[in-house]
């Protein structure tokens, strides 16, 4: 057990309020080790979704500024890009006409919102 987690665990046990600590170096290593192990289906679409999901979560790991508006926009840009990437996978591999249509709509909506958020960041010094 790493030192930060052990300290947090001990402190958490000794108080009424649980304490949660995260060693970002260890967390990143654990995520890498977990993603390196095959889990579930290993078909091309599943691998593509897993890669898009991993990239989205990595990109959402922003450094928070304490400015709620800016932090929200930065995190949401990555989140929306992840939705676009997954929708493109649906268009590549999906068969259902209704879901393929939805994927196209998601791409259009999310691209417009990313454009709006990037414009907001540019205007607001982000």
TrEMBL record:
The keyword Plastid does not apply. Keywords: Signal. InterPro entries: DUF305_CopM-like (IPR005183), Ferritin-like (IPR012347). Residues 26-121 form the DUF305 domain. Residues 26-35 have a biased composition (Basic and acidic residues). Residues 26-45 are annotated as: Disordered. Residues 1-21 form the signal peptide. The keyword Signal applies. It comes from the Bacteria. This is DUF305 domain-containing protein. The lineage of its organism: Bacteria, Pseudomonadati, Pseudomonadota, Alphaproteobacteria, Hyphomicrobiales.
């Amino acid at each position: 057990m790493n030192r930060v987690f052990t300290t947090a665990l001990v402190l958490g046990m000794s108080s009424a309020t649980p304490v949660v600590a995260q060693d970002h170096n260890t967390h990143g290593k654990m995520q890498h080790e977990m993603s390196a192990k095959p889990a579930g289906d290993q078909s091309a679409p599943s691998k593509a979704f897993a890669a898009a999901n991993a990239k989205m979560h990595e990109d959402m790991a922003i450094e928070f500024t304490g400015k709620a508006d800016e932090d929200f926009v930065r995190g949401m840009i990555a989140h929306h890009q992840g939705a676009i990437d997954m929708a493109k996978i649906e268009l590549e591999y999906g068969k259902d006409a209704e879901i393929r249509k939805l994927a196209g709509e998601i791409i259009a909506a999310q691209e417009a919102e990313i454009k709006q958020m990037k414009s907001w960041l540019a205007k607001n010094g982000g």
